[in-house]
Amino acid sequence: MTTPSLLDSLATKLSPETRSRLVPKKSASVAVILRNAQASPEVLLIRRAERKDDPWSGQAAFPGGMVSAADKSFEGTAKREAMEEVGVDLSGGAAVFLGYMREFRAHTKEIVVVPSVFKLLGSPAVNPNGEVATYEWASLTELAGEASRSSYVIPRSGGQIPFACIVYHSLVIWGLTERILSGIIRS
Q1: 107-149 pLDDT, tens digit each
Q2: What sign for the dihedral angle of Cα 139, 140, 146, 152?
Q3: pTM score
């Protein structure tokens, strides 16, 4: 898939509104942040810091988190979380909100997650907080390539459960993040 068709395909999957309800502690939003959208599109991915109280500890993810009582929209949640976790301001003239992807369900905790997609207008610095171990600007073209597809195996109940995954440099992207990325890069 060529770069323009990747972005064109993504545009058809976005909506200016979502049918999901904002429910604190039961819904969340992630910020899908794109840069170099026309030339060589990249998306910001993080690796979460290792924490005992975090079911997604150490995993590749998008900046994001739970809806708070003060949030007015999933877009607002994504903007707040991007600022908190990676220091990227998605408000005002720094970025354009492109729309929402369909809702996803996190299997770990029965949470509804609505991805909010943004296109950066500049190149802001990324300043991760303590929730983020590392970050990476990942090429959508490379993520879409068959060479990046693999499977990730988790030991469970005396057996093993394979999950589809995308391998990008040091990141193994699986679970909810893989499903969202696949929704972006696959038609």
Answers
A1: 766 889 999 999 999 888 999 998 899 999 999 999 998 888 8
A2: positive
A3: 0.89
* Ordered domains of the chain (ranges, CATH): 3-142 (3.90.79.10)
User: Residue 182: what residue type?
Assistant: S
Cα separation, 139 vs 93, whole angstroms = 24
Distance CA 142, CA 181 (A): 12
CB distance 178 to 138 below 8 Å: no
121-154 per-residue burial string, b: 16 or more CB within 10 A, e: under 16: eeebebebeebbeebbebbbeebbeeebeeebee
Flag whether pLDDT at 67 surpasses 90: yes
What is the rounded radius of gyration, in angstroms, for the C-alpha atoms of the chain?
16
Q: What is the 3-state secondary structure (H, E, C) of the chain?
A: CCHHHHHHHHHHCCECCCCCCCCCCCEEEEEEEEECCCCCCEEEEEEECCCCCCCCCCCEECCEEECCCCCCCHHHHHHHHHHHHHCCCCCCCCEEEEEECCCEEECCCCEEEEEEEEEECCCCCCCCCCCEEEEEEEEHHHHHCHHHEEEEEEEECCEEEEEEEEEECCEEEEHHHHHHHHHHHCC
To the nearest 10°, the Cα dihedral for 84, 89, 90, 94? Answer: -170
